[in-house]
């Protein structure tokens, strides 16, 4: 079901279906970001994941508070969750969704919102945006660039 759904998503978006990796995941390149689509068999769900940045030691206190505030009722993540890997300093955005309620159209909408949030947080954590965080936009005119 998972592989068929990813293939249907790519057909829907007009992209060539990506080859599955050894870990069973599929990856879409969206601008500078790599969006992972992973199957979680125990929950019969799909997980979207993307490393959106890295927190250096000098950024940690201020940015960490901002990440926590963004996660509060998903107020600035479009329903996804930001996580922090202390060993690497990476900030990862993830979202889980039940496979049985997804089709290619619903998955495309989910990926679109996820990409908006991932691009927003990549920009914030990359230091290009110095203003306080605002909620990411709800829609993106063109989301995946082949």
TrEMBL record:
InterPro entries (UniProt xref): Tir_chaperone
Protein name per Swiss-Prot or TrEMBL: Type III secretion system chaperone
Organism in which the protein naturally occurs: Pseudothauera rhizosphaerae
Source domain of life: Bacteria
Gene3D superfamilies: 3.30.1460.10
GO terms, biological process: protein secretion by the type III secretion system
